[in-house]
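User: I'm writing a tutorial on reading structure tokens. Could you give me a worked example: one chain, its sequence, then its tokens, then a sentence or two explaining what the tokens reveal?
Assistant: Sure. Here is the example chain.
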Amino acid sequence: MNPSDEILDIVDENDRVVGQAPRGEATARGLRHRCVFIEARDADGRIFVHRRTATKLVFPSHYDMFVGGVVGAGESYDEAALREAEEELGVAGLPRPEPLFKFLYEGGGHSWWSPVYRVRCELPVKPQVEEVAWHTFLTDAELEQRLTDWQWVPDGLDGYRRLQAFRTSD
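And here are its predicted structure tokens:
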């Protein structure tokens, strides 16, 4: 199936389903839907960082510190988090990602509810070539050093800043 044909639940400002639409239409019309963000760390605690492929519908060729993606119609956030993490990392048998918090992203004509998860991936990764053009694992300090140098997905950058604030409030 073409990714732009995938059916998504369209949600309101309170994350209640108000309809459905194909992904391409939801993106083109700026319809609010659901996404998941998963911070994946390796056995050494480093963060999986990647550059999206040039063919991505949203934010092509941008860097991201999360794996994840859209939640399909009728799919739960938790189901989508595990599916997306395994797909993008190219692994099977990950532990269920741990939910941390949820936020509403709105920017650049886009809007989606986005829970942030974390997962430890101690398996060798083989990222999905349709999604990931380049990848590495970075320490927190290495990631921080690159925040101003690389072109990051704006929703991921927003989620990362919220994650940093979430951690300091614990």
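What the tokens reveal: The chain has a mean pLDDT of 95. The longest strand covers residues 110-120.
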